[in-house]
Amino acid sequence: GRARSGIIVLPCGAGKSLVGVSAACRIKKSCLCLATNAVSVDQWAFQFKLWSTIRDEHISRFTSDNKEKFRGMAGVVVTTYNMVAFGGKRSEDSEKIIEEIRNREWGLLLMDEVHVVPAHMFRKVISITKSHCKLGLTATLVREDERITDLNFLIGPKLYEANWLDLVKGGFIANVQCAEVWCPMTKEFFAEYLKKENSKKKQ
């Protein structure tokens, strides 16, 4: 009954987009949706049109190729983490849009693929934007920089995680077969592999 900030973990194909759009519809406030790249921005804009009754003029995309102005009192802006966090010189149009994004108090900050966004960029985006509720979506709560606890601090705790095996058994996602493949290593390569200073490369 009330919006809680946090992270929802769903495997690929389990409906992260639908969950995000449903959350925005439930909150019924302006939504800033952040994706990792321009292709994802287009996909999110399409998902909002597919799963909600929002009119086209109330969805705007903000990428390097698409600078649609935010029209009306409420709606959805879909952009990338890079576009918000970018610190360099912007075009006049981009500057106006980013000012609107900064100055508005968003009802929902919807963040896709939260596990892949670099920590410094994440902090910048969170500090630039103001929102009542933050919802992070991801397929895996594993980060290569081992700063997963930062996400809990910046967004909120894990609210829900779906078990992929249960979803497979229920017929909701495709059956997955996991296989371990052992590869031979030369003696020299294995010696390098075991060195502590190369542990980052293993990831």
UniProtKB/TrEMBL annotation:
Highest taxon listed in the record's lineage: Eukaryota
Cited SMART domains: DEXDc
Keywords: ATP-binding, Helicase, Hydrolase, Isomerase, Nucleotide-binding
GO molecular function, one term: hydrolase activity
Catalytic activity: Couples ATP hydrolysis with the unwinding of duplex DNA by translocating in the 3'-5' direction; ATP + H2O = ADP + phosphate + H(+)
E.C. code: 5.6.2.4
PROSITE patterns xrefs: HELICASE_ATP_BIND_1 (PS51192)
SUPFAM superfamilies: P-loop containing nucleoside triphosphate hydrolases (SSF52540)
Any GO CC annotation of this UniProt entry: transcription factor TFIIH holo complex
Ranges of residues in domain Helicase ATP-binding: 1-159
GO BP annotations listed: nucleotide-excision repair; transcription initiation at RNA polymerase II promoter
NCBIfam families the record matches: rad25
PANTHER family: GENERAL TRANSCRIPTION AND DNA REPAIR FACTOR IIH HELICASE SUBUNIT XPB, RAD25/XP-B DNA REPAIR HELICASE
Family to which this protein belongs: Belongs to the helicase family. RAD25/XPB subfamily.
Name of the protein in its database record: DNA 3'-5' helicase
Species whose genome carries this gene: Aegilops tauschii subsp. strangulata (Goatgrass)
Lineage: Eukaryota, Viridiplantae, Streptophyta, Embryophyta, Tracheophyta
